[in-house]
Specification:
Number of helices: 11
Structural class: mainly alpha
Helix content: over 70%
Shape: globular
Strand content: under 5%
Largest sheet: none
Distance between the termini: 21 Å
Oligomer: single chain
Radius of gyration: 21 Å
Length: 204
């Protein structure tokens, strides 16, 4: 939205998210997610501390501790920051070679699993709620009540959820690049009109 609004006024902003949910690792995810924030901490914190040359593990933990605090002064954000910092350290020094040889689908599932756990930590500012979240998630508390209201909401919007999942992939960009190669402006215009109509139908 920011990029589109900027172009309306003659500004050209850089992409800040590059399809992060197609990532093959946590390292890959943070190269794609909130790239301006990652670049800021790299340029103004990580490199001045010594970067990859001196005390690399310490530098990574400092950066991610500050990244957590940047989102808010709550324990869950600090835990979230160190959580991803530790995952990045594990990938860098232990998992990098393993991730290179396992199938792409398993790399993706691995990344999505730990990313979703991270968003759970990020979401719950109350530690009791966070503990309950993990208890239900891993079936430690099987007696937990089913949220039928949430289930019905998900089912009522299942087609939009599927549509959103598809658009988390580069399918749109790939299609536009292909159409641009054949230089058919009429077809491209019709696709844009169709997408806009589909977007407007969401509100009815």
């Amino acid at each position: 939205m920011a990029i589109g609004l900027g172009r309306m006024f003659g500004f050209h902003y850089h992409e800040n998210f590059n399809h992060p949910y197609i990532s093959q690792s946590i390292t890959d995810f943070w190269r794609r997610w909130h790239m301006s924030l990652s670049g800021f901490f790299k340029d103004y914190v990580y490199i001045p501390l010594g970067g990859n040359r001196h005390h690399q593990v310490r530098n990574i933990l400092v950066v991610w501790g500050l990244t957590g605090l940047w989102h808010g002064a709550n324990w869950n954000f600090i835990i979230w920051g160190f959580y991803f910092g530790l995952l990045l350290i594990l990938e860098k020094f232990l998992l990098a070679n393993i991730l290179k040889v396992i199938p792409r689908a398993f790399r993706h599932l691995y990344a999505i699993f730990f990313i979703m756990l991270g968003w759970g930590i990020f979401y719950f500012t109350d530690m009791t709620q966070l503990s309950n979240f993990f208890s239900v998630l891993f079936n430690i508390a099987p007696h937990a009540a089913i949220d039928y209201e949430l289930s019905s909401t998900v089912l009522a919007n299942i087609y939009w959820l599927i549509f959103a999942l598809i658009l988390c992939t580069p399918v749109y960009n790939t299609a536009m690049q292909h159409l641009d190669r054949i230089k058919n402006k009429q077809v491209i215009g019709l696709i844009h009109i169709g997408l806009n109509i589909g977007f407007l139908l969401k509100f009815f």
